[in-house]
Amino acid sequence: MRLGVDVGGTFTDAVLNDGQRLHSAKAPTTPRDQSQGVLSAVERVLAAAGAQAQQVDAFLHGMTVATNALLEGRCARTAFVATEGFEDLIALGRQQRPHLYRLCEGRPAPLSPPERRFGAPERMSPEGPVRPLSAGGARAVAEAVAGSEPEAVAVALLHSYRHPEHELALGAALAQRLPGAHVSLSHQVCGTFREFERAATTEIDAALSPLLAGYLRALADRCRGAGLPVPMIMQSNGGLADLGWAAGHAAWTVLSGPAAGAAAAAQIARASGAPEALCFDMGGTSCDVCVVEGGTVAQLSGGSVAGRPLALPMLEVHTVGAGGGSIAWRDSGGALRVGPSSAGADPGPACYGRGGSEPTVTDANLVLGRLSKESELAGGVRLDADAALRAVGGLGRRLGLDPIRCAEGIVQVANAEMVRAMRVLTVQRGIDPRTRALLAFGGAGPLHAVEIATELQISRVLCPRASGVLAALGLVAAPSRRDVARTVMLSGAQLDGRLIAAHVEALGERARLELGQPGAELQAVYELRYRGQSFELAIEGPLDPSPAWLREAFEAAHEERYGHRDPDAALELVTIRLSATVGAADVPLAGAGERRPSRGPARPVVIDGRRLWPSIVRGGPAPGQAIAGPAIIELPESTVLVAPGWDARVDDAGTIDLRRRPR
Predict the structure, then answer these.
(1) What is the DSSP letter of 266?
(2) Which is nearest to 302 in space by CA: 204, 383, 159, 445?
(3) Does residue 102 belong to any structural domain of this protein?
(4) For position 516, which CATH number holds?
């Protein structure tokens, strides 16, 4: 049995694969100690499956610990060590404004303030040492750092991606002087060039690792006490790592939860015959958007989180603060706004009856009748319609709107935020969303999917039966994975097939060794550019590419992206990336989100400003079942809105396939 548990902002989801069927459950997230909510979700899914903890072979975990700590600034007390003269590198960055036209918008402050930044008396060039670091110099730096009483230390020296000797010496000196502090060395964290991005990533890794390690230790203790195996942890790249490695490399887990959801969405898209899809995961706190092309989600070699660069492999997921728990408010200009603040799990939306009083998207959907006050939400939450009406009505009075119009406005503004996020990944990148299916998941996603599809002129919507727990399902299907990279800077005569193959072989051995799987499958990515360009294009290719193959593949990608190629320009191979994976597999979709379907009593629902009486379907509609809109489908962990003018049919995997009727 494989058990996947994903921690969201409002609910913690669990999926158990017993080899034949999937079983699912939810429990409220416990923000003060997320491991409590994790074990509650595990207990519920084991009870649903009639299984015992001792039967679980693998426990796979996605969480938001590192993400939330970074967003909220709750980081360990961190010191930063750089080459002497470059101590303020993380503050200077690239001296660019975060936004071209917002002249007063600032960047996030470094996690290490000036008084905790130190210079090492050394200098390395790409060819080797210019100023060697003596043993006494390393000890002196360690002594100075110790005086600042740090909990973690980030070390990022110039050109250490090629010559790590000085970083290793400093790491040893710091470990001896500060045995209780976590030390992150930049060549071990990301190992590629561009000193600012490498330094910023290492600083994040150092600042988050002590917090993540504490959480994972507590979770491991709870698991041992419950008879469960030690969890494996989802990384931002969509692969799993063992708990000990993840605890010491927190930067690799910043997008842990969204990565699991994106991977599962790709599987659902393939199974539904929609390998080109636009996916969005609307949970309680945020909405994560990704694009599936050719049945997979694109991989990036780096990105940014909370305005901070992260030079590590990650699935291409764009996040906005629009979830079911997002709070609606009136800004200083009198406009209705939604998010990014969220009611979270504690106290949660007003309708949860846990002390929340601010109006949220979930409250608005309840006021509009799209959620039923008679039905219990997954996780055992009973909805209080009167509390929702009070919260939405209070905001409506401040805006001069009646409660229904205010609730409609909240939903429309939230939808607009999600549409904007989707256009970032489609229209702004030359992808026509009208040619793709929209795959909606998360507890709130299917409730908003048809309206978002209408705005984007999409005519097909897919809602998996396991929508509410899809990220946990992605964990069950995820492989173990280890990524390594090396900046090689090969061009001209150096761009030789044998030399490239030697680099690939060395990186492959290292990736398999770190993963502990000698037979792991290897995948290679080559980052290339024309000489004189500042940035590279990533090309996935064979393990033994010829220079001619690399050039043709790069120029084809360059022409597709920029509209031209230059056969006479010199080509540079900048970085080689290798990933080693083992254990990836599609999971059986039978059982996920299944409950016996039934008809519920009709109730009025407001859709497009009209008061309608849609049919109500509760449970999991059976494969082959057809449902004409308007209708509400109440799945065990989410709710699907089938608007007027749309029809739904359930495919063999239980996915609800909605199509717009021809006009």
Answers:
(1) H
(2) 204
(3) yes
(4) 3.30.1490
367 and 396 Cβ atoms separated by less than 8 Å: no
Residue 315 is encoded by which pair of tokens? Answer: 């699935």
Task: Quick: pLDDT tens for 193-235.
Answer: 999 999 999 999 999 999 999 999 999 999 999 999 999 999 9
Residue whose entry in the numeric block shows the structure tokens 């699907």: 640
Q: Is the same domain home to 635 and 512? A: no
Lowest-pLDDT range of 404-413, 569-578, 607-616, 640-649: 607-616
Residue ending a domain, among 582, 612, 642, is 582
532 and 618 inside one domain: no
Same domain, 491 and 620: no
For 96, which DSSP code? -
96 in the same domain as 199: yes
Give the torsion through C-alpha atoms of 353, 466, 458, 8, to 10 deg: 50
Residue 140 included in any domain = yes
| pLDDT at site 10 | 80
Same domain, residue pair 94 and 162: yes
pLDDT tens digit sequence for 621-654: 888 999 998 999 988 888 999 999 999 999 988 8
Q: How many CA atoms within 13 Å lie on the side-chain side of 198?
A: 24
pTM of the model: 0.88
For residue 179 the two structure tokens come to: 């045995």
Extended strands (E) in 132-276: 152-156, 182-185, 232-234, 240-242
Q: Examine the domain organization and report whether 523 and 649 are in the same domain.
A: no
Give the list of residues 6+ apart from residue 149 with CB closer than 8 angstroms, or none: 77
What is the bridge-based pairing of β-strands 626-628 and 605-607? unpaired
* Count of domains observed in the chain: 3
CB 233 within 8 A of CB 243: yes
Tell me the residue range of the domain where 648 lies.
598-660
Nearest CA to 478 out of 591, 587, 578 is that of: 587
User: 275 lies in a domain?
Assistant: no
Residue 249 lies inside a defined structural domain of this protein:
no
Q: What is the pLDDT of residues 377-414, one digit of tens each?
A: 666 678 899 999 999 999 999 999 999 999 999 999 99
Question: Backbone dihedral region of 605: left (phi > 0), alpha (psi from -120 to 50 degrees) or beta?
Answer: beta
CB atoms closer than 10 angstroms to residue 274: 21
Alpha-helical runs (H) found in 227-285: 243-247, 256-271
